């Protein structure tokens, strides 16, 4: 098994946005994987707080697909604990959603525009996340478990 565990408590650009249990949850999952399931620690990668930026999250998921040590069909766990949010649906109609919003993971570097009431950077939209998972599945197989411990996670992996 290989795991990517992402936990964000600190949101410096969101007023009142800090969380208190996300990092602790990631550390508990890591402890469970290593001590109870005997997953080698080198196979468990974590991104916490300031390392869990939009680019950091996306590059780590892409990196799983490029890891030579992960063979086709090996189990992969992706666990995210942090904020989730919504965005207006992009103008292009290729985003097949039934309403005017899409969902997203909110990274450490997220910024919210109160005037426009929308996220302006630092988020991973659901279809982008799904695309990263699709590529990972093509390269490593579909033995992938995704756990999203956040609000607005219903369409997280589409």
Can you tell me the residue ranges where pLDDT is under 50 for at least 5 consecutive residues? none
The helix tally amounts to 3
Task: Give the C-alpha Rg.
Answer: 16 Å
Q: What's the N-to-C terminus distance? A: 23 Å
What's the story with the biggest beta sheet?
4 strands, parallel
Overall number of strands: 7
Structural class: alpha/beta
Shape: globular
Strand content: 25-35%
Strand order of the largest sheet: 2-1-3-7
Q: Percent of residues in helical segments?
A: 25-40%
**Average of pLDDT:** 90
Helix/strand order, N-terminal first:
EHEHEEEEHE
Question: Secondary structure elements and their pairing?
Answer:
Layout: E1 2-7, H1 22-36, E2 44-48, H2 54-66, E3 76-81, E4 84-88, E5 101-113, E6 118-125, H3 126-140, E7 144-149
Parallel strand pairs: 1-2, 1-3, 3-7
Antiparallel strand pairs: 4-5, 5-6
Helix pairs in contact: 2-3
């Amino acid at each position: 098994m290989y795991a990517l565990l992402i936990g964000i408590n600190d949101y410096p650009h969101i007023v009142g946005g800090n969380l208190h249990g996300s990092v602790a949850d990631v550390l508990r999952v890591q402890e469970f994987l290593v001590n109870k399931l005997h997953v080698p620690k080198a196979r468990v990668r974590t991104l916490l707080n300031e390392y869990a930026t939009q680019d950091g999250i996306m590059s780590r998921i892409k990196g799983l697909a490029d890891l030579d040590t992960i063979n086709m069909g090996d189990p992969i766990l992706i666990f995210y604990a942090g904020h989730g949010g919504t965005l207006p649906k992009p103008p292009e109609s290729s985003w097949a959603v039934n309403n005017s919003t899409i969902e997203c993971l909110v990274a450490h570097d997220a910024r919210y525009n109160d005037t426009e009431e929308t996220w302006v950077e630092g988020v991973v939209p659901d279809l982008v996340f799904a695309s990263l998972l699709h590529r990972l599945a093509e390269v490593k197989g579909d033995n992938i478990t995704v756990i999203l411990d956040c609000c607005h996670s219903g369409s997280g992996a589409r």
